[in-house]
User: Which sequence fits this backbone?
């Protein structure tokens, strides 16, 4: 290679090095400017919205993780509020205390509307006025909720009706009818259901046998929303059956569970109330 050729080659090499340095310099400046731009946006956000540095970091991190997997979004229903479950008293209890048993004319009426999917019967009844239960109405409710297989009738704990009333009030559905999937069950019916349909989630010591439970639906209300309304009361057991599309509501120990056709999950809330030894063995279900 001659001197002239070597000089030309040297100039080409120098030019390529210069171009590479210029490109690298632009890349560095672009990264610096980008960083400054991000910092400026963050600073502006702090000035305008009062977001602290740690809060900003959490927001950015949350957005990054949210973009990784959409299933990470957990839909939680807002906590319901409204009518509370305040038990009333029976006239006999009032009489035993020596007080007058007159039902107040201006007392709040507690009304329930129900249909029974097995018998086809419907009931629209005021079972309580003010603080006083109405015995005749309770008798009609007991018969309506009878074991449709044997026609046996139980004496329901009237608190169960208070739970249903408060639940419907919180749903804004006091004028709607409750569809009763199951009311009272005799021990014989309960045992037969357990033997013939072992995958239905029937508990050995079911609250249905005590006249403490009702399985139900409400037309126009999703099963999940119905469950949330019942849970918000914290007044007893709530079983969620999304496959069969009904909710179990009882006035036994405070607990909750989920039951599906493929698997049965354990209770996710501990028993918070003392209860009898007979019902304690059935707290993992209805």
Assistant:
């Amino acid at each position: 290679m001659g001197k002239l050729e070597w000089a030309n080659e040297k100039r080409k090499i120098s030019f390529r090095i210069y171009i590479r340095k210029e490109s690298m310099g632009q890349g560095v400046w672009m990264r610096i400017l980008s960083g400054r731009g991000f910092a400026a946006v963050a600073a502006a956000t702090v000035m305008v919205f009062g977001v602290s540095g740690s809060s900003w970091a959490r927001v950015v991190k949350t957005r990054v993780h949210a973009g990784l997997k959409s299933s990470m979004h957990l839909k939680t229903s807002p906590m319901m509020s409204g009518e509370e479950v305040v038990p009333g008293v029976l006239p006999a209890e009032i009489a035993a205390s020596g007080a007058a048993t007159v039902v107040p004319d201006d007392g709040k009426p507690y009304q329930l509307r129900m249909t029974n999917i097995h018998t086809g019967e419907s009931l629209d009844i005021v079972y309580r006025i003010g603080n006083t239960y109405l015995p005749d109405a309770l008798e009609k409710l007991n018969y309506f909720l009878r074991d449709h297989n044997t026609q046996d009738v139980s004496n329901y704990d009237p608190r169960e009706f208070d739970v249903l009333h408060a639940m419907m009030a919180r749903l804004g559905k006091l004028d709607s009818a409750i569809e009763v999937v199951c009311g009272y069950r005799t021990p014989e019916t309960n045992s037969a259901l357990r033997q013939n349909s072992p995958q239905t989630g029937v508990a050995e010591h079911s609250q249905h046998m005590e006249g403490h439970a009702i399985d139900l639906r409400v037309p126009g209300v999703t099963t999940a929303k119905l469950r949330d309304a019942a849970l918000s009361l914290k007044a007893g057991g709530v079983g969620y059956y999304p496959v069969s599309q009904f909710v179990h509501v009882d006035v036994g120990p405070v607990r909750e569970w989920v039951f599906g056709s493929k698997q049965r999950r354990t209770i996710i809330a501990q028993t918070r109330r003392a209860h009898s030894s007979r019902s304690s063995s059935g707290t993992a279900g209805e």
About this structure: Helices lie at 3-49, 53-68, 91-96, 135-144, 159-171, 187-196, 223-233, 277-280. The CA atoms of residues 131 and 159 lie 12 Å apart.
